[in-house]
Amino acid sequence: xxxxxxxxxxxxxxxVHGFSPVEQERLARQARFLEHKVYQSIExxxxxxxxxxxxxxxxxxxxxxxxxxxxxxxxxxxxEKQLAxxxxxxxxxxxxxxxxxxxxxDAGNLDFAPASFDAAFLCWILEHVPDPEQVLAEVRRVLxxxxxxxATEVMNAAFFLxxxxxxxxxxxxxxxxxQLELGGDPFIGAKLGHILLRQGFRNxxxxxxxxxxxxxxPHLRHEVLQYWSELLLSATEQLLAARRVTPDLVAGMKLxxxxxxxxxxxxxxxxxxxxxxxx
Length: 279
What we know:
Layout: E1 3-4, H1 21-33, H2 35-38, E2 49-53, H3 59-67, E3 72-77, H4 80-90, E4 100-104, E5 117-123, H5 132-142, E6 143-153, E7 160-162, H6 166-181, H7 192-198, E8 202-213, H8 218-233, H9 236-241, H10 247-261, E9 267-278
Helix pairs in contact: 6-10
C-alpha cells in the first residue's frame, strides 16, 4: 500500500477542469490514451528515487510504476482531493507496495532535503501553477548532480480543426483565457527550454509531440476527437460560472463537435512539448 503522508492544507488551487469524480476518471483515461506519445523518449533505467511533481489522481504514477519496475516514486500534489483519488487508485496496487509515497505539498516549496532524488517527472502540471520557474528551481534543488528531468507540457496555440468551427474556436479561446486568469499558462510548452536553461539545467532538449489525424486513419481520428471533446467539456461548468462562455456558445460548440465526428473531411492537429534536461 502506498504511504499517504499527512495533509498540510485544506484548500484547493484553482484548476480549470475542476475536481469532480468524472474529471478524475477523465484524467486516468487521458493518461492511458496519450501514454504512447508521452513515454516514447523517457528512460528511467538505473534510477532509484523519482520525484513526481503534480501526481494528481495517480494516473501517470500508475504508468510509471508499471513501465519502470525498479524505481521508487515520491508523488506530491497540492490538492487534497486529487491525492485522495490517487490513494484510492493505488492503495491496493501490487506495483505500489514499498515503492510509492504520496504527500500533499506545495511544488514551489518542496519539503525535501537537497539532492534527495535521482530523477524528476512533471506532466501537465506547469501549465496550472502560478510560478513555474519557482517550481523548477525547487526541483533542481532536490535533485542529485547528474540527475535527469522530464517535463511534458501543453502548447494550446497549436490546436487546429478543419472544417472551421466558429463556436468551438471561441470556446477554446475562452478556455485559454480563463486558465491565464487563474494564474496558469496554456502556452508554456514552447517556453520549457528557455526556462530550464535559466534555472541552471544542462543538456536541455525539447521535442515536439504531434497529433495529426485525417482521413488516412479515420478510426484513430475519431478516438482523438472523442478524447478532445471530453477535455473541452470538462471545463464547461467553470467557464459558464466565470461568464467566459454563454449557454448558446456551449450548445453551438457541442453541435459542431457532433458534426465534426461524422465529417469524412475532418483534419485534427495539436502538438505538445517534452523537455529533457540534466543537472
